[in-house]
Amino acid sequence: MTRNCDPAREFATDLHAVLQALTDPARPVLSPGDVRQMFSPRRPTGLRTRRRLTPRPVTPDPVAMVEENVGVIWVIINRHFAALMRIVGEDEVFQQAYLGALEAAERFDASLGYKFTTFMGSCVWGKLQDLLKSHRRAHGRPACDTAATTTPGVFDPNILRKTLVDPRPPASQGIEDSERAAFVVDRLLALAASDRDRTILAEWCDGDGTPRRFCDVAESLGLPTSTVRKVIGRIRSQILEAGLNGELGPDIAEWCGSNGDSAEEN
């Protein structure tokens, strides 16, 4: 026989069993308050509430920042300091550039609104300029700054853009500019093979390192324009082959090339 399952009767039976257990003389007497406390939801007391911790700002690793942007270093070296790398050595140039990049990573402040690559490029440029100046002074050459001044703690956000677009020196540089012009003339005259070539070069440089047109030089000396063009072209080839365009300044090759073009037109 199957027993009929009546939920109401089963609940009444269970409740009766619970009441008998509560009224058992062997159990301690419970007050109504104790019963309410037993069946009321318990509230944790004395427990420490969980605090919501704010994440600490992560300090970027300077070495990792430089390694991620090491291509900027090689762009600056290859575009503007290739001659210095041939003279001093690739390891020395890259070491100084890497040191400047590390200093940039340690001093970089993102709150200023500048990109790290721009700031790092400026510091790398300054380090290599210092290396170039020290090399010039060690060999008795004028420390001519070709594009930037490297004052510690001062950053010009436009310096990298200026140097990548126009590496020529500014128009006014005071004493350094005059020293550099005299040095350019002396080095050019040292390349002359004869007194005639030296005279042509002196007239072409005009005494201050500024080139003149071939036709004007030929007219001043009473020589054919082809002779002047031949002498200047030979000196220009010697400058480029020896890498002296980096020693004399980045605008020497441009001077020779632009003057030659103007001579062809005239």
Automatic annotation (TrEMBL):
Residues 91-137 form the RNA polymerase sigma-70 region domain. It comes from the Bacteria. Gene3D superfamilies: 1.10.1740.10. GO terms for molecular function: DNA-binding transcription factor activity. GO terms for biological process: DNA-templated transcription initiation. Transmembrane segments: none annotated. This is RNA polymerase sigma-70 region 2 domain-containing protein.
